[in-house]
Amino acid sequence: MIDMLVRLYDLPDATDLYGKVAASGVTLRRARAFEKHTVAAFTKANFSEKWVSEVEVAMTRQPISCFIATRDKEILGFACYETTRRGFFGPTGVSEKARGLGLGKALLFKALEGLRDIGYAYAIIGGVGPKEFYAKNCGAIEIPGSDPGTYIDLLP
Ligand SMILES: CC(C)(COP(=O)(O)OP(=O)(O)OC[C@H]1O[C@@H](n2cnc3c(N)ncnc32)[C@H](O)[C@@H]1OP(=O)(O)O)[C@@H](O)C(=O)NCCC(=O)NCCS
User: Fold this and answer.
1) What single DSSP character describes residue 94?
2) Rounded to two decimals, what is the model's pTM?
3) Structural domains in the chain?
4) Residues 149/126, Cβ–Cβ less than 8 Å
């Protein structure tokens, strides 16, 4: 899986996107330390153990480098940054029932803004699955020669 590069210095303004998400009753915010077990359980139930490990790293940072989308006390999606490597975006995921509502894009922008605000000019999306999602939503381009990149000698 290839890595992708995103320019952070000209990220589009996401105010309208956040407004639409808020109008649908969804809250976007950083996860909090005392929610680590809840975010980990969501990630395990919907995604993978490896992503649980990365989420747990994000949950130890200050500020916590994991954003969540919630509604009615339920997590619908998450997005992390600076877990496996500095400057990396991910992992991220939206529960199947909440896809297609703009939450994945909104969480992506929250996390990219988090990277921008700590000084990065570029973000790296590590080991990309849905390349078209990133190309379309944040202008990400593939990094030549980055497959398998940093994801080598993987333990189960
Ligand atoms: C990828 C993922 C986070 C997208 O979440 P989502 O909430 O469904 O996405 P959004 O509703 O915010 O989509 C925003 C836009 O991207 C488009 N889009 C969504 N998924 C896409 C995909 N896989 N490929 C191309 N475009 C996609 C949508 O059609 C939408 O376009 P529009 O603005 O023109 O309507 C979600 O499908 C997911 O959790 N996938 C499994 C986990 C995963 O692959 N994570 C990424 C690992 S690198």
Assistant:
1) E
2) 0.98
3) 4-142 (3.40.630.30)
4) yes
Q: Is 133 in the pocket of ligand 1 (CB under 6 A)?
A: yes
Model confidence over 26-52: pLDDT tens digits? 999 999 999 999 999 999 999 999 999
Q: Are strands 88-94 and 122-125 parallel, antiparallel or unpaired?
A: parallel
Nearest CA to ligand 1 atom 23: 130
93 pocket-lining for ligand 1 (C-beta < 6 Å):
yes
CB 140 within 8 A of CB 108: no
Compute how many other C-beta atoms are within 10 angstroms of the C-beta atom of residue 89. 29
CB contact at 8 A, 121 and 7? yes
Q: How far, in Å, is the centroid of ligand 1 from the Cα of 135?
A: 11
| CA 95 – ligand 1 centroid, Å | 11
52 CB near ligand 1 (under 6 Å): no
Q: In what order do the strands lie in the sheet with 122-125?
A: 27-30, 66-71, 74-81, 88-94, 122-125, 4-7, 141-142
Nearest CA to ligand 1 atom 48: 128
CA of 70 to the centre of ligand 1 (A): 17
